[in-house]
Amino acid sequence: MDHVDRAGVLAEFDRDVRQGARPDTPDARIDRVDGVVRLVTGEGHGGDSVLWSDLDEATADEAVAAQLRYFAGLGRAFEWKLYGHDRPADLGKRLRAAGFTPEPEETLMIADLSRVALDAEPPLLRVTDAAGVDMMAEVHARAFGRDSASMHRDLLARIAADPDTVAAVLALAGDRPVSAARMELVPGTRFAGLWGGGTVEDWRGRGIYRALVSYRARLAAELGYRYVQVDAGDMSRPVLERLGFVPLTTTTPYLSPPDTRGTPGTPGTGRADGP
Questions:
Q1: I need a labelling partner for 157 at 20 to 30 A (CA). Which of 20, 23, 151, 169 fits?
Q2: Is the peptide bond before 258 cis (omega within 30 degrees of 0)?
């Protein structure tokens, strides 16, 4: 993808996916207020987040304080998703000073679907019903070692209400689900996002993640998307680079201070894609 204007693609990503964000569940909403775009979930069960901001040195501290006040009023934890090119340049420092805790840094990677390698075999099952969502939740619980009730509820509602905006897939070993992932589709843009990839421990390192990426990329291309996007961790980045993905910038989830976390649940339930 060296022939592509990476700055131009990043600007398009910011405009279409972050500024133009859409609710990711039927009961969620997007607020655009005071230079901030935020996702507010309908039930407050995790996933509330600041997705984009247009701030400078004079407005950043008050914008951060305003979001803390807003979500504290709801009694909810939330995540501020900071990208490496966001302004002001010291926004991460300002978030830490306000009590946010940074999660590990990830890399925003993009593949041009006209050039990405798609030679891996697809997974065995596309999830379209409650039984498939049950298996997705089982994989996530085993792969990530945490409760997957929120993911189960959200995905089931999404498939029922708006199936054209999400594609969930499973890899099976016999009748046992061993890996799962999903793709978020953003109608009206050229971007599809790869999220939530996870493989149970004893099946890692066998090429399953590559197959999941290739399957979703094929599907995105068939649906007319130009790019697939991933927030990649250290384990997934080498696999993605071999497939033709390139880095555009970094992204770091900042978790709100403990005293704002009145509602059980974990922010950032989108979860980066990975093996």
A1: 20
A2: no
The one-letter amino acid at 24: D
Q: pLDDT tens across 50-91, in order? A: 999 999 999 999 999 999 999 999 999 999 999 999 999 999
195 bridge partner residues: 182, 272
Type of residue found at 173: A
124 by Cβ neighbours in 10 Å (0-12 / 13-18 / 19+) ranks as: middle
The phi, psi pair for 93, rounded to 5°, reads -60, -40
Burial bucket for residue 209 (CB in 10 Å: 0-12, 13-18, 19+): buried
Residues 38 and 158 in one domain: no
Q: Tell me the CB-side half-sphere exposure of residue 200, using CA atoms within 13 A.
A: 17
Q: What angle do CA 207, 210, 216 make, to 5 degrees?
A: 140
Q: Are residues 207 and 100 in the same domain?
A: no
Model confidence pLDDT, tens digit, residues 123-169: 778 999 999 999 999 999 999 888 888 889 989 989 998 898 999 99
**Can you give the CATH number for the domain in which 25 is found?**
3.40.630
Start-to-end Cα distance in the chain: 23
> 103 and 218: one domain?
no
- The domain containing residue 202 runs over which residues? 111-248
Give the orientation angle of helix 130-144 with respect to helix 149-161, to 10 degrees: 150
Higher pLDDT, 170 or 264: 170
The torsion angle over the Cα atoms of residues 215, 271, 84 and 5, rounded to 10 degrees, is 10
Res 270 pLDDT > 80: no
Contact 138, 177 (CB under 8 A): yes
What's the rounded Cα separation, in Å, for the pair 242 and 239?
5
d(CA 195, CA 207): 17
